[in-house]
Write a structure and sequence with these properties.
The protein is an alpha+beta fold. The chain has five helices and 18 strands. Bound molecules: zinc ion (ZN).
Length: 218
């Protein structure tokens, strides 16, 4: 079992399900040749794929296009179902930054065939996280900068104000279909600039006032 770590708290919470949103930044949907969605596109990652800042991402041998996606991640701190605006916001107890590592070649193949993307998004070390910042310590303004560089060169640089669906809208949408529970995490989608990484590459990612992730590919 994998546990979350918190800034300024000794609490240890087992990681529940990880719900991910696709195409939540218009410029990223465009760079992959996709339409901007009317509703959030949802997929899952299992908690067993999690590693933490400082650990290495292991490049699967069966892919030639491992890509980085930097994302704001919401920490769900209480059970919620059919949330309204207020209970959606209340269920978000904190935030962290995450990497949604993706096998783009597999994803494109599955997409062409109309098959699920599962194995493009789920492999060991496919999710990189760092400490959760609780809302009592910091509340998102909504325009924090989010960025990622590879070997010191900037690849992704945007602001979470460019998200198509806000954190509360995402929690409302998901919780109308699937109960969210304490320990669940929501990856809220990546801005434009995603790209390939190869063994030896070093990734630095940061979300303003929330945290940074350092990892390398092996
Ligand atoms: Zn993603």
């Amino acid at each position: 079992m994998k546990y979350l770590n918190f800034k300024n708290s000794e609490e240890k919470v087992p990681i529940g399900k990880m719900v991910c949103v696709g195409r939540n930044y218009a410029a990223h949907a465009k760079e992959l040749g996709n339409d901007v969605p009317e509703f959030p596109i949802i997929f899952l990652k299992p908690a067993s794929t999690v590693i933490f800042s400082g650990d290495s991402v292991v490049h699967p041998s069966y892919s030639n296009d491992l890509q980085h996606e930097v994302e704001l991640v919401l920490y769900i701190g209480e059970d919620v179902k059919n949330a309204d605006d207020a209970s959606a916001e209340k269920a978000i107890h904190g935030y962290t930054i995450g990497l949604d590592m993706t096998l783009r070649d597999l994803q494109n193949e599955y997409r062409k065939k109309g098959d699920p993307w599962t194995l493009a998004k789920c492999f060991d070390t496919a999710a990189v996280l760092t400490d959760v910042v609780l809302k009592k310590d910091y509340r998102l303004r909504g325009d924090e900068k989010i960025s990622l560089s590879v070997n010191g060169k900037e690849r992704q640089n945007s602001s979470i104000k460019n998200m198509l669906f806000s954190p509360a809208e995402i929690v409302k949408f998901i919780s109308a279909r699937l109960t969210l529970e304490k320990g669940d995490l929501i990856f809220t989608g990546t801005p434009e600039g995603v790209g390939r990484v190869v063994p030896g590459d070093k990734i630095d990612a940061s979300l303003e006032n929330i945290g940074t992730i350092k990892t390398q590919i092996k």
